[in-house]
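Q: Convert this sequence to structure tokens.
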Amino acid sequence: MILEWIIIVVYSVALILIFMYALAQLNLLFNYLSAQKLIDKSETFDFSNPSEIPSVTIQLPVYNELYVMERLLNNISELDYPQDKLEIQVLDDSTDESLASTKVQIAELKKAGLDIKHVTRKNRTGFKAGALKEGLKTAKGEFIVIFDADFLPKKNWLKQTIPYFKDPKIGVVQTRWGHLNRNYSILTKVQAFALDAHFTLEQVGRNSKGHFINFNGTAGVWRRECILDAGNWEGDTLTEDLDLSYRAQLKNWKFKYLEEVETPAELPIIISAARSQQFRWNKGGAENFQKMAGRVLSNKTVPLKTKIHSLLHLLNSTMFLNIFIVAILSIPMLYIKNEYAHLKMYFYVMSFFVVSTIIFFICYWFMYKITYGGGFKMFFKYTGMFLTFFTVAMGFSLHNSIAVLEGHMGKKSDFVRTPKFNVGALKNNWKDNKYIAKNISPNVIIEGILMLYFAFGMYSAFVVGDQGGDFGLFPFHLMLFIGFGFVFLKSITSKI
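A:
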């Protein structure tokens, strides 16, 4: 019975933590809805007056981006901003043939009159953070714009963002990510769905009430003074953007989030690329919880509610661990429920926590409605998308839980870039991409075993107890079976 009680306690704690996170999301929804009624009265630079137009440096941190470099540089060269106030730094850590082709293209852009520099290093010390820090040493601009290689800002992007720095307290302006290939596949649709929730519900919900938000690594602008005041870029976590964001806000710098400014980008189209991105984000989130939680709690200028939201924000990735725990223990719990009649009341109480899923469903519906519009037809499509998203997310829970555990335990790993493809249609042959990882992680085999484990969970629904089975967890186990099956089969077939 001792083992059964351990299972019950761990399962209950994980459910409670998920519920608390759901309540925080609900609070962000209320914040988001109230923010829609606000009129933005921010001071802005008057760009009709040349003396008010500040100097800007655009930093493009890149590493072996053979397939997207030409597209990136052509796009950046078309940004509408006075040339005498604009500098472009290509922070190129590449080790392949893209280094030479990029050099040639930069030379052509120089001839066209652009102030563009090709900044290279002998080693990748600090990875992306190290490259940004190196570029900052020689950057001319008062404001530092950062774009990853797969981002394609619109021509007027600088004129939509830079003016908000009229307020000297603003250290960062962040824009919303768009998705060039949202409808490419189920995988890209799921990624877009998750990112849309972050860039509407979470960023607006936090920013509108003065809670901490994060610079998202790209598609945003830093005040140079803010970077230096916060201690500059550090490469001791895999999410250097989240790290510097918190250090800056603990120094009382304000962040401005612009939901209305969309910056299109390419989503990973194969699961190995999505896995590497997810691993980096989730491990980096856990690393930053370990690094920043104490500083947030001990800071006397940060309001209590902001501290709570900050801790939950830093624990975002840890929710995958709780989901994985609940998933694994749900099958033993099915048997415990049907063997110990005296625990009936406990299971009635635990069933209440299905409300967590309902809360997520409601929160994400508002996000979806804003993006696609309302009505019954859209609600029907949303329901399908929500179930698909949750199913695939649960399929990633083992992979992401390992990342989270490594982050909390302090295990260090290299910054693994997400391969870019420059693919817009299924006819494009992405399998020729030289950056695709060829090896299959041992975790993939475990995901295949978990698919079979949850098939057993579905079978168990028919045989437990003496009342003809128990089907309460059957939908949950079906989603887990499909989710792990999807991740397992896609991980195998994407190597072929």
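The chain has two domains: 2-32+318-421+430-493, 44-270.
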